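subagent[fold] <- orchestrator: predict structure for attached chain, return tokens only, no commentary.
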Amino acid sequence: MGGDVTFVPLGSLVEPDRGISYGIVQPGMHVEAGVPIVRVTDVRNGQINQQNPLRVASEVAAKYRRTELRGGELLLTLVGTVGETAVVPPTLRGWNTARAVAVIPVRRDPGPRWVQYALQTGAAREHIRTRLNTTVQATLNLGDVSALPIPMPAASARGRILEILGTLDEKIELHRKMNETLEAMARVLFKSWFVDFDPVRAKAEGRAPSGMDAETAQLFPCEFVESELGELPVGWASVPVYDIATYVNGAAYKAFRPNDEGRGLPIIKIAELKGGVTSQTKFSDVAMPEKYRLRTGDILFSWSGNPDTSIDTFIWAHGDALLNQHIFRVDLHSPGERSFVLSTLKYLRPVFAEIARNKQTTGLGHVTAGDLQRLLVAKPDARVLAAWERVAAPIVAAAFRKKLESVSLCHLRDELLPRLLSGQLSVAEAEREVGAVA
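subagent[fold] -> orchestrator:
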């Protein structure tokens, strides 16, 4: 960008007839036919989770017209996990937000995307951190939001910077969608083989199983026996989810003696499972037992939190780290069972969410080792397991490669961002760096 950069307060960049506001203070109970709202837990990694939103009564939402979404606003989380941002897509027109989410109607010039990038810089995050009220839980007030300094180079420079960063974000988003497609493929196949038992049913009816070669089809039995799960293919077993792997829980957070200086290894909580290691991640240089050490490729199962957004299975795509409590590292009994264990846990996500929802207190729920011991799944014999690994492992590996590429792109974007916005890096230099990977 070059030259001096002018900073202006965020409040000067919003639509004057709307201003910066926070959403519904007391949403009340969920109303199935009500107005959906965005909560803090719905805003992660620049995205808004639109699945299973809390819905409030229309008469409650009517009192908060000022934060009724039109599309294009920038959302900023104010309580708990402070500083998460997302631009509202047109599809959320008519939605509202919770009290803990600020609605920022940024003017067309500079646009919400520019402000979103500006708020991701280390300088902006440090500005937010120093103004947090942490008496009960971290909270940012609207006065401090309005005062946030936003860099404002010339419009031409802003356009080129947005194009550079947008190129990276588009590729990251493309990888995310490709991963969704790959995971959907694996889920459909898993359900066919191990839930609906389609190959077995086909053979029982004298048909050739569809979608597989004769050698693979030969591995499946052609009849069922009764079990605790109901009909089960002959030779297969009904086993607790707890028995298909070893589940290692993380250490208590205080045991790490967390620091803000980046000393040691990052401490991985559920926020890091979703967003990776960020400026808000705490570190630890305490010598912890090896069982709490994470490495790239480890399977992790978050068993506590919001049932709809936190209970899930992940593959750790970052470097060495430390495992916090509320997350199981899932250790395999055999490397050849990796795709089966991963696919089983991912397929059961709705079941886990329902278990957690039935234990919900103050919005949080959990899945215990006891729940995993009670929940049964069908486990095939070793030959079918090996066949599944041959089919599923390439899909899992392809998705993980895309995830690793996305992590690298995120690191590049986050490295370029402050240097571009501060003028330390020229647009031409950034274009060359992005061109080498995008």
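orchestrator: received. Logging for downstream: The chain is about 35% helix and 20% strand. The radius of gyration is 24 Å.
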